[in-house]
């Protein structure tokens, strides 16, 4: 706790016993969302904010997911900030390293790194009603803020499987999002648990290198072709020098992707077209009928995230790779035992079992107006927010990438920028109207969520016959946006203060600085 802070934020260093540092706005997390908001605030000329980031660099999920084969499923020209287009993307679908370099470059170009405090793990965020401020505890000391923006994202907390004996495994083991690059898998007997988006990239990337690979599949995923290729020199020149060419390319990708929501959310029978393509792919890429049967999904395509890969089926068809569909009964010191009693020896275990999405441990750290944590509130009502950004009982707290703003088919960066518009306008409104607190009205939040769940009723996510991480423990889809993304952009264009209960700054104290002066801590 007493570690010297090496940030260059202009606020006092944190050390044991020193007073909490104050910033008007504190952003937690510096992935594409938190970083994007920081850039917007700087563009607005604001200097009164800080970004607390638990890692030692920007990038969030793209910093953390360094597993072999990691790449984006959304084309590069759409998976980038609208204010920082990149004519230099090397291929149509970027790989992790290139995306991370892009994020680092943008953070430097926009000169926001001096507003960051890295290696700063936030452990508690508690509302102080008397001071109308958030009190934040972190591994880099304490902070207070008039407004907090949580930009930690949904895919940040690895979920480890609760399998008997997993703790007793003696070989090398790690989660896909915490890849151990020191572990040499060459020639080893390796097991991968899970067949989601991460696994289907890892398996082909390591299949050739390892001695033997067992892929433990609980549910077979649907796979579509990946139209990935390097850009030619001519295309690079066009992206760079022909005015509007890159924007046009981006718009075309956006439009093509946007049409998918019609089948996913509104009229699932339309997804049959995708299923036909996926089945043709299965037939051509998995010649062995027994293996094909194993890897053929048993639910409507789109119910879980549709995956794109050209090398997964060839990888699992290799002689040194087995797809194991019997459930895992137990993990032992050097082996995995399946429910049919078969024991397979392994040297290394890779856990590609996803993330805590609807039950993020970060929800336990946030304590709202009535003393309840966000986890407790969500336990009652499910993961709910208003426009994915604000939650009743949590005044002056905004979320980027909150409930129901997720997407499976197009760029999250588009949704992030919509939310940045909303939150940046909220901060401007708070200042302009001299507001002390803003808290979304319960009735408004409820009506918003009733409408969301009505829209989701016919979706493939609820009717496609699968169990996915999109659903919370109440069976509601509380992660995905069920409409066109341009509708969300329209809804978040401006901060609708009328949807919020507000209090104004006490005229006796004039401003917040005075307010703090009379508040005892
Ligand atoms: P995921 O999609 O949640 O997949 C987890 C896998 O682990 C599933 O196959 C799941 O099986 C299996 N699993 C979970 N618990 C298990 C258990 N106890 N025993 C056996 N199997 C178990 O996680 P992910 O692959 O890390 O992907 C998460 C999300 O990250 C993606 O949906 C996507 O949004 C994002 N992502 C994107 C990319 C990309 O753009 N290319 C790449 C990676 C990740 P069930 O299906 O039966 O639950």
TrEMBL record:
Domain of life of the organism in this record?
Bacteria
Coiled coil (UniProt feature): none
Name of this chain's protein? NAD(P)/FAD-dependent oxidoreductase
Give the organism the record lists: Nocardia callitridis
């Amino acid at each position: 706790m007493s570690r010297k802070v090496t940030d260059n934020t202009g606020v006092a260093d944190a050390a044991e016993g020193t007073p909490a540092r104050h910033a008007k706005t504190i952003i937690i997390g510096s992935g594409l969302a938190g970083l994007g908001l920081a850039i917007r605030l700087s563009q607005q000329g604001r200097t009164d904010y800080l970004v607390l980031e638990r890692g030692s660099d920007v990038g969030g999920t793209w910093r953390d997911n360094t597993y072999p084969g990691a790449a984006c499923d959304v084309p590069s020209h759409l998976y980038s900030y609208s204010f920082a287009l990149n004519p230099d993307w090397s291929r149509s679908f970027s790989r992790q390293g290139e995306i991370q370099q892009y994020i680092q470059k943008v953070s430097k170009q926009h000169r926001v790194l001096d507003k960051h405090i890295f290696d700063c793990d936030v452990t508690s965020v508690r509302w102080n009603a008397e001071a109308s401020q958030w009190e934040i505890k972190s591994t880099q000391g304490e902070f207070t803020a008039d407004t907090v923006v949580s930009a930690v994202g949904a895919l940040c907390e690895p979920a480890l499987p609760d399998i008997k004996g997993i703790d007793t495994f003696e070989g090398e083991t790690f989660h896909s999002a915490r890849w151990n690059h020191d572990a040499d898998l060459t020639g080893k007997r390796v097991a991968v648990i899970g067949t989601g988006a991460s696994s289907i990239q890892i398996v082909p990337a390591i299949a050739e290198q390892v001695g033997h690979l067992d892929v433990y599949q609980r549910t077979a995923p649907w796979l579509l072709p990946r139209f990935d290729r390097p850009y030619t020199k001519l295309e690079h020149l066009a992206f760079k020098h022909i005015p509007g060419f890159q924007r046009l390319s981006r718009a075309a990708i956006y439009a093509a992707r946007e049409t998918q929501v019609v089948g996913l959310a509104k009229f699932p029978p339309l997804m049959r077209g995708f299923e036909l393509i996926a089945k043709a792919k299965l037939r051509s890429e998995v010649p062995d009928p027994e293996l094909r049967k194993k890897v053929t999904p048993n639910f409507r395509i789109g119910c879980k995230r549709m995956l794109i890969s050209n090398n997964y089926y060839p990888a699992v068809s290799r002689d040194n790779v087995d797809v194991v569909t019997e459930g895992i009964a137990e993990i032992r010191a050097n082996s995995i035992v399946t429910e049919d009693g078969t024991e397979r020896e392994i040297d290394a275990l890779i856990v590609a079992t996803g993330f805590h999405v609807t039950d993020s441990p970060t929800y336990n750290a946030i304590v709202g107006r009535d003393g309840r944590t966000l986890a407790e509130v969500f336990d009652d009502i499910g993961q709910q927010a208003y426009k994915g950004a604000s939650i009743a009982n949590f005044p002056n707290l905004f979320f980027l990438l909150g409930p129901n703003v997720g997407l499976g088919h197009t760029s999250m960066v588009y949704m992030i920028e919509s939310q940045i518009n909303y939150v940046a306008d909220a901060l401007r409104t708070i200042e302009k109207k001299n507001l002390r607190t803003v808290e979304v009205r319960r009735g408004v939040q409820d009506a918003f969520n009733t409408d969301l769940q009505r829209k989701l009723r016919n979706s493939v996510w609820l009717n496609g016959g699968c169990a996915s991480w999109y659903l919370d423990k109440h069976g509601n889809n509380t992660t995905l946006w069920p409409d066109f993304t341009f509708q969300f952009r329209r809804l978040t264009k401006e901060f609708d203060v009328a949807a919020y209960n507000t209090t104004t700054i006490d005229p006796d104290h004039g401003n917040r600085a005075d307010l703090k002066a009379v508040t005892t801590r």
